[in-house]
Write a structure and sequence with these properties.
The chain has 12 helices and 12 strands. By secondary structure, it is of the alpha+beta class. It folds into 4 domains: 105 residues, no CATH class; 89 residues, PAS domain (Beta-Lactamase, 2-Layer Sandwich); 73 residues; 140 residues, 2-Layer Sandwich (Heat Shock Protein 90). The protein has a 5-stranded antiparallel sheet with strand order 2-1-5-4-3. A 5-stranded mixed sheet has the order 7-9-10-12-11, with helices on one face.
């Protein structure tokens, strides 16, 4: 830039000098010489204007090259037309650097477009006016043609979808059904809020969960069949054994009253156990549909405490905030919590100082969460994946349906149950609802 400043001053100095000379000659009435000096000053003024114009033109070429992305422009041969040599490498370096950044941006955009169009999740971005600004290939395949432009266009595939996506909150998971051709498949819907160029946008993700449901259902059926087979065989085996014994016994021994009495008692006991097992199965499959009401979490826990304290069960509770309310079926929630607290008490039966705590609070997404924790014996790792299987139990005399009922109650409320446990350290059961409270 020093050379540019020197060239500028080299043209400006004569201009100022001859302007002063012209003014001085005019003041002493030397009109002819004054006019000549003024003419020379005008020539230097024109030369300075042409110099600035040429430089501005070259700068404009740089701006146009960036604006129109004509990044193959070169300034190497323009130094005689107004651009100084010291500016040439700087301007060409600026164009080259901009070109590299643009290519990197295009590569990243291509990568992300390829990535987002290859995944099987339905993704699209909507603005505050519910206009779809971007949509991936999976979404186009799912919703078909014509390409949806607004959120309301998705009602053709799922009438409930636009309303759900307008009201869903970050962190919530909604299950919806989408029609494609003659098939109706379940999807989970989630959203993420973000800002782009000063606009608040929502990234909507829809995941087809039909394969997961099918696999989970098949696995649950396999586990249930194993448990049912085990329980039924435990009841039928002694009955069959007795029948074989009587069929092979000497006819004179069949009339032995004592032997007959013991045999009948065994058959009665095992038959009764089988009937109770079937009754428990009916109980598991006949959980009523929740009647949702708003109630105080503190009042519910006080009622549960008084009920269980009468049986000698002691536990503590922590509710934050103190006036927290739940929107659920109170009767079913009490049933679930009573089962969990009783399980925790039995797990702490060998502890000198049993500690059972029920904590109710709102998580980061304002969804109610209940944690039932204890310092009991814990659950072995190879058993944790079976504790929700109906009729599975590690307790003598247990029915094995308590945790299954709890899980079904939470599922009916749109929530889920999770268990965290370490042997000899204790267990935490987490009940999370899918809705948010404000």
């Amino acid at each position: 830039m020093k050379r540019f400043a020197f060239a500028f001053l080299l043209r400006l100095a004569p201009l100022v000098f001859f302007c002063l000379i012209a003014g001085f000659l005019g003041a002493i009435h030397q009109s002819v010489f004054a006019v000549l000096a003024f003419g020379v000053a005008c020539w230097f003024m024109f030369d300075l204007f042409r110099f600035i114009k040429r430089t501005a033109k070259d700068v404009k070429r740089l701006i146009d090259a960036i604006y129109f992305s004509e990044l193959n422009v070169s300034f190497h041969y323009f130094e005689r037309k107004g651009l100084f040599p010291e500016l040439i490498p700087q301007m060409e370096s600026a164009v080259l650097r901009f070109n590299e950044r643009l290519k990197q941006s295009e590569i990243k955009q291509h990568f992300y477009d390829l990535l987002l169009n290859r995944i099987d999740s339905v993704l699209f971005v909507i603005d505050q006016m519910n206009v779809i600004e971007w949509i991936n290939k999976a979404a186009l395949d799912e919703f078909g043609k014509p390409q949806p432009c607004r959120l309301s266009d998705l009602a053709l595939n799922s009438p409930e979808l636009p309303g759900i996506l307008e009201n869903i909150l970050p962190g919530e998971v909604k299950v919806i059904k989408i029609k494609r051709g003659k098939q109706i498949r379940p999807f989970t819907a989630t959203i993420v809020l973000f800002n782009s160029q000063g606009k608040q946008l929502r990234l909507v993700s829809l995941k087809n969960i039909q394969p997961v449901l099918d696999e989970s259902e098949s696995e649950a059926q396999r586990k249930l069949i194993r448990v049912l087979t085990h329980e039924i065989m435990n009841s039928l085996t002694p009955i069959i054994s007795l029948a074989e014994t009587f069929s092979e016994t000497d006819p004179s021994g069949i009339n032995d009253p004592e032997l007959m009495s013991k045999a009948m008692q065994t058959i009665h006991r095992r038959s009764k156990g089988l009937v109770e097992f079937i009754a428990n199965y009916k109980q598991l499959t006949r959980i009523p549909i929740p009647v949702l009401i708003t109630f105080s979490a503190k009042e519910m826990m006080n009622d549960i405490y008084h009920l269980l304290h009468a049986d000698g069960l002691v536990f503590s509770s922590d509710i934050q905030p103190d006036d927290l309310t739940l929107f659920a079926d109170r009767t079913l929630m009490e049933q679930a919590l009573i089962n969990l607290i009783k399980n925790a008490w039995e797990a702490c039966s060998r502890k000198e100082s049993p500690e059972i705590n029920v904590r109710i609070f709102k998580n980061a997404y304002h969804s109610p969460t209940i944690i039932v924790s204890d310092n009991g014996c814990g659950i072995l790792p190879d058993v944790q994946d079976k504790i929700f299987v109906p009729f599975f139990t590690t307790k003598s005399g247990g029915s094995g349906i308590g945790l299954s009922i709890c899980r079904q109650i939470l599922i009916l409320h749109g929530g889920h149950v999770a268990v965290e446990s370490e042997p000899s350290k204790g267990t935490r059961v987490l009940l999370t609802f899918s809705y948010a409270q404000h």
